[in-house]
Amino acid sequence: TIAVLSGIEIETEEVGGGGPQGKETQILRPFFFEKIHPNPTKGMISIRFNSPDKRRVSVKIYDVAGRLASTVFEGKARIGMNEFLIKPGDFASGVYFVRLETEGYTKTEKVIFLR
């Protein structure tokens, strides 16, 4: 079922209630990648994304030359909000790109690490 609220499509799913009330509607939040914050930073950054199911997800950090700097996560996401905290002390100062990939969705966000 697709519901449209304020111009935003929300996918819903019928779920059994287990009691006399019958079926309820549960809202499934779509897959999305939040803005990285704080950015720029000398402290920790938060990488957050929401997953409506336990799909395979890859979160990697690349330098400006496109070289892999770190694999943050590769595996199955939890249902709901997923968060990873990264210490910029593990990286030289500069511009990096955090790339999140999953089936049917890829997004890259720029982050600046300061020393």
Provide structural commentary:
There is one protein chain. The strands form 3 sheets. Strands 7-6-9-10 form a 4-stranded antiparallel β-sheet, with no helix packed on it. Mean pLDDT is 82; it is low at 1-16. By secondary structure, it is an all-beta fold. The protein has no helices and 10 strands. It has 2 domains: 1-29, no CATH class; 31-113, Sandwich (Immunoglobulin-like), CATH 2.60.40. It has strands at 2-5, 8-16, 23-28, 32-33, 45-51, 56-63, 68-76, 80-86, 94-102, 105-113. The chain is globular, with a radius of gyration of 18 Å. Residues 36-112 form the Secretion system C-terminal sorting domain. This is T9SS type A sorting domain-containing protein. It comes from candidate division WOR-3 bacterium.
Describe, in short, the structure shown:
With 115 residues, the chain is mostly beta strands. It has no helices and ten strands. It is globular.
Going by helix content, strand content and strand pairing, the class is mainly beta
Unreliable stretches covering 5 or more consecutive residues: 1-16
Sheet having the most strands: 4 strands, antiparallel
Helix content: under 10%
At the fold tier of CATH, the topology name of the largest domain is Immunoglobulin-like
Quantity of strands, as a count: 10
CATH class of the largest domain: Mainly Beta
Q: Tally the helices: what do you get?
A: 0
What is the N-to-C order of secondary-structure elements (H for helix, E for strand)?
Answer: EEEEEEEEEE
Terminal CA distance reads 49 Å
**Second rung of CATH, namely the architecture of the largest domain:** Sandwich
With strands numbered from the N-terminus, the spatial order across the biggest sheet is: 7-6-9-10
CATH superfamily of the largest domain: Macroglobulin (MG2) domain
- C-alpha-based Rg, rounded: 18 Å
The domain tally reads 2
SS strand fraction: over 45%
What overall form do the CA principal axes indicate?
globular
**Overall pLDDT metric:** 82
Organism: candidate division WOR-3 bacterium
Domain Secretion system C-terminal sorting: 36-112
Protein name: T9SS type A sorting domain-containing protein
